Amino acid sequence: MTECHSFTKDDAIRFADEHSGLFGEHSKLSCDELGDNNLSLLFRVSNDKGRSLIVKQAMGHVHIASENWQLTPDRARIEAEVLIKHRKLCPEHTIEVLHCDSKLAAILLEDLKDYRNLTTELISTKQFTHLAPQLATYLARTLYFTSDFALTGPNKKQQVGHFLNPELCLVTEDLSFTDPYCNHERNNVHAEISADAQQLWHDDIFYSAII
């Protein structure tokens, strides 16, 4: 596993087993592919004793749009280094990165299966009294200690360049803030709302308001 290629379940098992001592020598390992992520492949590798880890590999293109929309796999390195930095600043609220292989664009992460998905819980109108102070603590530490208040000017500029990823920013800028408001080839418009979409694309007042 030295060349960059899309992981299979067997690849994910080998990656997790090689770079973690969690499973032990005599564990029977299995793997499940998680969801349909448009930018990454996600796997949960588990052993027969209930222990598990997450393998995340950055894909080389935007799956939801087109294989012609290429992305640098360096974003896996960026994600891993940011999480490692944030965990040092706020360990109680940051996931642990166990290993990162920049050549394979793959990260090994602790499994958060015992936690509930916040988006799902909020959609179901559940409230959490501890959420605000935990978010405040996380944001205060990670934002302050990576800002101009805590870093020297040269250090801050060096880190901005080190973590900058204009390609990934473009995914949000185009897919979320540009394509839906024009007749773009990446749009997939259902026939039942085609007339509404056409009207939206030609509504100059609406378009000027969102930009």
Topology, number of strands? 7
The coarse silhouette is globular
Q: β content, as a range?
A: 15-25%
Quickly give the structural class: alpha+beta
In CATH terms, what is the architecture? 2-Layer Sandwich
The gist of it:
This protein is α+β, with helices and mostly antiparallel strands. The chain is built from eight helices and seven strands.
Please describe the structure with a list of short key phrases separated by commas or semicolons.
211 residues, alpha+beta, Phosphorylase Kinase, domain 1, 5-stranded antiparallel β-sheet, two-stranded antiparallel ribbon, 8 helices
Sequence-ordered SSE layout with sheet pairings:
Layout: H1 9-18, E1 30-33, E2 40-46, E3 52-58, E4 61-62, E5 66-70, H2 74-89, E6 97-101, E7 106-110, H3 118-123, H4 131-144, H5 153-163, H6 166-177, H7 194-201, H8 204-210
Antiparallel strand pairs: 1-2, 2-3, 3-7, 4-5, 6-7
Give an account of the 3D structure.
The protein is α+β, with helices and mostly antiparallel strands and 211 residues long. The chain has one domain (9-177): 2-Layer Sandwich (Phosphorylase Kinase, domain 1). It is 40% helix and 17% strand. The protein has eight helices and seven strands; from the N terminus they run H-E-E-E-E-E-H-E-E-H-H-H-H-H-H. It has helices spanning 9-18, 74-89, 118-123, 131-144, 153-163, 166-177, 194-201, 204-210, and strands at 30-33, 40-46, 52-58, 61-62, 66-70, 97-101, 106-110. A five-stranded antiparallel β-sheet has the order 1-2-3-7-6, with helices on both faces. Strands 4-5 form a two-stranded antiparallel sheet. A hairpin with a 6-residue loop joins strand 1 and strand 2. The radius of gyration is 21 Å and the shape is globular. The model has no long low-confidence stretch (mean pLDDT 88).
